[in-house]
Amino acid sequence: xxxxxxxxxxxxxxxxxxxxxxxxxQSGHWDHYAENMFRLLIEGQDYSLKPMNCPESTIVYRSRVxxxxxxxxxxxxxxxxxxxxxxxxxxxxxxxxxxxxxxxxLYVRPDQLGDELQALLGEVAESYSWxxxxxxxxxxxxxxxALGDPALWEQAEEIIHGTLERTGSPYTVKxxxxxxxxxxxxIYIDDALGREWQMATIQVDLVMLPERFDLTYIDxxxxxxxPMAIHRAIYGSLERFIGILTEHFAGAFPFWCAxxxxxVVPIASRHNDAARELGALLRDRGIRVEVDESDSRMQxxxxxxxxxxxxxxxxxxxxxxxxxxxxxRTRAGEQEPPVGWETLADRLAAEAAARRP
Length: 357
Ligand SMILES: [Zn+2]
Fold this sequence. Notes:
Blueprint: H1 2-7, E1 11-12, E2 18-20, H2 21-27, H3 29-32, E3 39-42, E4 45-49, H4 54-61, E5 73-82, E6 98-108, H5 113-129, E7 136-140, H6 150-167, E8 171-174, E9 184-190, E10 196-205, E11 217-218, E12 224-225, E13 228-237, H7 238-248, E14 262-266, H8 272-284, E15 289-291, H9 298-307, E16 312-316, H10 318-322, E17 325-330, E18 335-340, H11 341-354
Parallel strand pairs: 1-5, 7-8, 14-15, 14-16
Antiparallel strand pairs: 2-4, 3-4, 5-6, 6-13, 7-9, 9-10, 10-13, 11-12, 16-17, 17-18
The protein binds zinc ion.
């Protein structure tokens, strides 16, 4: 994600976990969301552990005067968030009290909204394609009692609708299902078991950040104008996403994102030195590799790695070491002919870089 975001011109920011009550009063969360926040009293002042990154990003926006030429501004943040969920609803990795969200807030001029949304839909499609997942979208429109200028809502909804049509993204409309400050696009996927998961969201915020925090940019005539703010998360809570992926792949992660990509298996203890050397060579190429130097028999080492769904087992004995080669086994039980260390390193580095599901 960071590589994609660099390519797209994001700036990564990091805002404090501990946030003054004053900021939540300004955003409106203190009135509507306080029971979900962990609160702390520090020197007689109310603070909370942040449940979201939104208002904090406005402080970065307002740290200097912004011109129409500065926009769009894209602030990403892997914020550590805390939400005081009731213990009864906590569930594995998919519902936790402390999580990291792949969050971003984008500040755009109204005339930039269409292009920015189109690029965001592209980001979503690309980042799910690395896992072989195909996102679907819903378009949630203005609810009753929404805040903000009705003409602005109409303009934003027209642009969102046009962008979804233009990109040919599969979507359905959910009338009146937007938030009180933003029309939004929600992202859904189906996992390998056919279950539907609501993942993350793209909200076009017309009110909460722009108005409550009085954000402006200076237009070409020197007039102060209101930007639009886009809240976007793609995977959402990373903990929840990893939980969903673990079930989706039944633990057999694609090579590029497997926590351990290869285990070097020395046949006997006299092969340990060479095994360590091969491990270091692969690690040097960015491969996540472990060396099994335990006293277990070779077959047990291989079985253990297969149970852990490690993509490759690299077996080293006298013959292989003499030829500076290694016998490759896959987690599916296939055996490949011995291959030279350097050739293997090239192949695994290329496979990781390809990010295939
Ligand atoms: Zn936000």
